[in-house]
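Good morning,

Attaching, inline, the backbone tokens for the sequence recovery test we're adding to the shared suite. The designed sequence is right after.
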């Protein structure tokens, strides 16, 4: 199996209509500062970002808001990466953390599981609208947060997109760390494997 790096994994999700945190491998502190610069002209403020070794799962975020903080954090991340990539990522909105995972079950084929802190539910792929509703409803029944109808509909929409991605992408297994906001979500981390190299369009 081939491991897909996080930037390619997030780009694959984005190209399947799934909202992800803007991310990039950076080679130096100045590259990280350039990543944090706003895309709108004439606005000198930096977008809050986080820096970490790419091989380390996303930690609790301490947003970096200035050149000096970014330079110091880059030096720490570069040393911790031990020759590996340093990942820069735009800070996502605060929210509840969930995990969506895909695996190939020996008996049932591809499945998608939805995990919270204490409970998980799983169904076979492909998901239809009814299956996505059952998965989201069963998940919400075991969690006190995010139990409203708008959140359920958002989860259903996300699960349908992830199911379509799993069917079409060539990925064999994956784990997505997702942050749920008010009526929205952001994928902040992704690990994936595939049986062969996958084509990823130019990153946008």
């Amino acid at each position: 199996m081939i491991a897909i790096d996080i930037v390619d994994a997030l780009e694959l999700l984005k190209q399947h209509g799934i909202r992800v945190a803007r991310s990039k491998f950076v080679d130096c502190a100045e590259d990280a500062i350039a990543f944090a610069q706003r895309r709108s002209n004439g606005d000198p403020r930096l977008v809050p970002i986080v820096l970490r070794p790419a091989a380390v799962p996303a930690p609790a975020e301490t947003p970096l808001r200035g050149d000096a903080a970014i330079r110091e954090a880059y030096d720490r991340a570069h040393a911790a990466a031990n020759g590996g990539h340093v990942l820069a990522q735009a800070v996502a909105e605060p929210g509840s953390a969930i995990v969506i995972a895909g695996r190939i079950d020996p008996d049932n084929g591809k499945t998608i599981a939805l995990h919270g802190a204490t409970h998980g539910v799983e169904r076979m792929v492909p998901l239809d609208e009814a299956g996505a509703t059952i998965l989201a409803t069963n998940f919400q029944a075991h969690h006190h947060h995010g139990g409203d109808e708008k959140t359920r509909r958002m989860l259903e929409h996300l699960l349908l997109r992830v199911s379509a991605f799993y069917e079409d992408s060539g990925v064999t297994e994956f784990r997505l760390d997702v942050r749920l906001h008010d009526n929205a979500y952001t994928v902040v981390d992704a690990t994936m494997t595939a049986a062969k190299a996958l084509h990823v369009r130019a990153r946008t």
